[in-house]
Amino acid sequence: MEFQGKVAIITGASAGIGRAYALALAGAGATVVAVARTLGNLDGETPARNTLAEVVKAGEGLPGRIYAHACDLETEADVARMTEQTVANFGRIDVLVNNAGVYPHYDTFAITEPEWQMNMNVNVRAPYLTTKYVGPHMIRQKSGSIINMTSGSAQFWPKGHPGHEELLLYCVTKAALNRMSTFLAEELKEHGIAVNALSPGAVLTDTWIAVDPKATDEAAASGWAKQCTPEVMGPAMLYLAQQTAETMTGKILHTDEFRKSWP
21, 128, 133, 170: which is the annotated catalytic residue? Predict the structure, then answer.
């Protein structure tokens, strides 16, 4: 259990990739603070899927333990409170996975100011805020790993590919997140803290399946999209979670290339 005694915060942990990451870290022995807006009924025997309560329930029996924390990442006071409560309860923070995000589809020339602001708040400002409050605790420890979930669309999205004409804002936010990751990697290097960005690629989450069941069936059959399980999604993230500024930092990586072109 390489993460025994380690404490991790994962945002957007109630569903999809964040849920898989929470279970993977707990499976490796970590204490996991699972963060999302949707808490759910923690006292229920069968809590609703895509809630923090369900993730906590799913993690029962793993070597580590998952704790739920409802938090609005667009509200700075909520982020500060979540961080301080984590330190008060567990004494440290070793891993921060900034997974929460939105995947907007807007006509390129019809994005409203509120839509632009909301997407920037969730995809860029929220990872900044969590790092702003978690960072000082990692600096005091002189250790830590921060992983920002990005997308290949930050660098290139081929014209003609489905959704190309609707993804300007998503591409912009992920490009900003990449640059923030490389900047913070240099900023925090002297303190031993690793900062890397990881693109999960095409993943068959509940959200994707609900939106387009036919497309996901085709993706699953062809093998180009991955199942959203801790076993499939976890290894690349777990590797990055163990890194330091001396071993790997400032990288923008893709899950599909793990154990191929990296580490």
Answer: 170
